[in-house]
Amino acid sequence: MYEANYSEVPEFVFLEISSYRPMQHLLLAFSTMFYVTIVLGNLMVVLTVTFDPHLHTPMYFLLANLSFIDMCFSTLAVPKLISDLYSGHKTISFQGCVMQIFFLHVLGGSEMLLLVAMALDRYVAICKPLHYLTIMSPRMCTLLLSGAWAIGVIHSVAQLAFVVHLPFCGPNEIDSFYCDLPWFIKLACTDTYTLEFMVTANSGFISMGTFLLLIISYVFILLSVWKCSSAGLSKAFSTLSAHITVVVLFFGPCIFVYVWPFPAVPVDKFLAILDFMITPILNPAIYTLRNKDMKMAMKGLSSKLLSLRKIS
Fold first, then answer.
1. Residue 211 to residues 62, 93, 205, 252: CA-CA distances in angstroms?
2. Residues with Cβ within 8 Å of residue 309, at least 6 apart in sequence
């Protein structure tokens, strides 16, 4: 391994998404509006599921955790982007960059496994409805959530352990608005071919593997519903098509960045915007706001909050 004290780069500089000033103003407004919407939307989902006893079921338990992860995932990069666009000071410390990479992969890996858990929940609910509460017990839900977080941490630590002590002596410019392993490794002052392969194998495998597993599970659910009742196929397809849309939007940029981690064109910046700003908004909209019980619970919670405000 390399000596940690070898690093002579105290900070990294993010390159601009666009040097055109009006475009920067547009990105600032766009990022601020979307981030506020992400926080309010996902926080509302978490609070609604937490305080409404009728929503204390496996499906809503997983949905609330998905909203929490989405909110944290967006907070990891978007506030920094907003600050950089406003101030023009687009730097991050070496330690800050490493921490951003760590939490990025913890949250990303956890969300991938949580989406698998949600697919399992839908399979049991649709294909084994009589055994749903027995299979998806509180203990099972806790194990699935704990497993998702544990694998996310292991996935992140396993990669950072090999790259955190790389020597850096310049340049220090990252062609993105956040830190991630492909660009971090590229700036090291040593041969990183093996590490590049390791990152591609690790992150690329978990991204592609989870994506294919989800698609196969959705196809299997549809086939199971079709065999049992062709009448329920359209309803199941309507529900799962929304899930598949979110999965494709979430995994598409991940697969692009890690399976093809050093592209010749900076398209990954715009794909990253999908992951950090678009998908976290779509999740509460698609998974919860289309749900009648969720909308009623949100209205009830809003009414309670308004009444408390009037009393105070």
1. 18, 33, 10, 9
2. none
pLDDT, residue 92, reads 93
Q: Cis check for the bond before 171: say yes or no (omega within 30 of 0).
A: yes
Closest CA to 270 of 30, 13, 51, 60: 30
Q: CB within 8 A of 49, min separation 6: which ones?
A: 55, 56, 60, 61, 63, 64, 297
Strand order in the sheet with 91-93: 91-93, 11-14, 173-174
Task: Enter the tokens of residue 208.
Answer: 């592609």
Q: Is the pLDDT of residue 264 over 50?
A: no
Neighbour tally for 225: CB within 10 Å:
20
174-197: pLDDT as tens digits: 888 899 888 888 888 888 888 878
3-state helix/strand/coil string of the chain: CCCHHHCCCCEEEECCCCCCHHHHHHHHHHHHHHHHHHHHHHHHHHHHHHHCHHHCCHHHHHHHHHHHHHHHHHHCCHHHHHHHHHHCCCEEEHHHHHHHHHHHHHHHHHHHHHHHHHHHHHHHHHHCHHHHHHHCCHHHHHHHHHHHHHHHHHHHHHHHHHHCCCCCCCCCEECCCCCCHHHHHHCCCCCCHHHHHHHHHHHHHHHHHHHHHHHHHHHHHHHHHHHHCHHHHHHHHHHHHHHHHHHHHHHHHHHHHHHCCCCCCCHHHHHHHHHHHHHHHHHHHHHCCCCHHHHHHHHHHHHHHHHHHHHC
Q: Mention every residue, 6+ apart, whose C-beta is less than 8 A from residue 294.
A: 45, 48, 55, 60, 288
Q: Compute the C-alpha angle 243/70/24, nearest 5°.
A: 110
* Per-residue pLDDT at 289: 66
Per-residue model confidence as pLDDT tens digits over 213-231: 888 888 888 887 777 666 6
